[in-house]
Each structure stands twice: as C-alpha cells, then as structure tokens.
Amino acid sequence: MTTQIHFTKMHGLGNDFVVLDTITQNFKPEPQLIRRIADRNFGIGCDQVLIVEPPADPHLDFNYRIFNADGKEAAQCGNGARCFGRYVYERGLTGKKTLEIGTVSGKMTIDISDLSCIQVDMGPPIFSPKLIPLNIKAVSKLPKQGCYKIQLLGNHRDVVILSMGNPHCVISVPATTEAAVHEVGKALQKHPAFPKGVNVSFVQVLARNHIKCRVYERGVGETLACGTGACASVVAGILHNELNPEVKVDMSGGGLTVKWVPEGPVLLSGPAVAVFHGQFSIHIQDAF
Fold this sequence. Notes:
By secondary structure, the protein is mainly beta.
C-alpha cells in the first residue's frame, strides 16, 4: 500500500526545509524516513523537515515539530518558524496574522502581517545549565551571565553558552571567513560539556548594530543561515556590551534582524520563501 504525501520546499536565507502537515494528511515522522527525505542526492534534500500538527493545547493554533537531517527531533528553529507561519497561511490552514504555536521547547508567537518580513517571538534566552543542557563540570564559569571558559582542541576559549530553545555556544572571531567552522563545530558535538550536542555560532562584530555570523548546526553541519544562532549571537554581544538592542545579522544566505532587551523576549525578523510544491509516495515500510 502506498500513500501520497504533499509537501512544500521552503527556505529562510538558504536554510532550507521540507514542510508538510498532518492536518490534511497522514504522516508519521520516523527517523529513517526523515533522513531519506532530507538526503540531497537520493531524496528531496533539506536541512530540516518541518511538521505542522493540530495543537495539543486548545489555546494554541498549531503544533510545530522540527527534525534535523540526521532524523533526530530538534526543539527550536527560528528560520523554520517563519516558513511555518507562511506555510499555514498560504495553504489556507489559518486566516490569522498572529499565530500562537506549540513546540518541544514551549510556546512561540509568529507575526505574519507582513509576509515579506515575518517576525517571530523566540521567547527569552535561557541560561540555566540544567535547561540548556550544559555539564558545568566540563567548563569554567566566568563572572558575566552565560560566559564560560572551555577547553577545545588543545586551547582554552572564552564562549557564551545559552539556549534559544536549543543549545548554543557563541564564539567571537576576528573574521568569520577564517573561522574553523567545521573543525570546531564538529569537535564540540562530542565535548562533555554538551550532553545533547550544541549549535555553534562564530561571530564577527562589525559595529554596534551589525555582525557577521556563521553557524554549525548539530545534526546538520554548517547551514547558510540559522535563526536561533543569530538570536544567540546577538544576546551574547549584548551581554558583553558590544551590541545595541537591535542588530542586523549577516549570514551566508542573507540578513536577519534581531532585537533583544535583557529580561525580555528575543525578536527575530526576516524572509520566508516557498520554492516549490510537490508530492512523494511512501510505502508502509517508509520507502518512497
């Protein structure tokens, strides 16, 4: 028996997604099937697969699930959230312009009143080691909030560690073009400080309202853009008194805007683009 599954290929600054819903069709996100969908040679190809589900909480509009290309479920994705908002609106699943959605990491708000620049309320940054999660025995705490010293590849580095719904380690670099993104990012996935892996941001400050950023995402590798990585990078810069409350973030795929006032939520704004619609067939054994 085969089933036709309809999807939309989308991206936020080149951070690309396969988006599908389980409201109008039956789909079970098994890890093996997610990996095959995400495969760029033998599948559709994407960084993450995004699933639209009916809300578990009647006060919310939808449930939002994210699966990395390795098949593992992630707790948050800012670029994906913007694509999620545009998808449900343009596919006629909602007529609302402000959406309250549930995720593994909690509730988030998406403002789609301007489809050319969608804003997501990412909630406040999380610094609790238990919630990140962070093994504090594997790092040395520094005086400023979220700041640590970590041993990495034979050197000690000052970093900022926090969660934006998923764990982030932010590293300041003189130039993002010269950052050892793959080497350092891959090494940190196995570091004892991060029991569930970590997204790693490499940040170059250009001005108080402008940074460059490259991100190695756990379960994916380096992506053209990472919304939560942009948020974490701006939070880190503000904590170090290097950035203003509103910052333009240049990533390989384009620019995002991040706003944050300490103690408040982080607001992420940027584009979300639908590339094409398609369908694939799956057997009950999960091949397509």
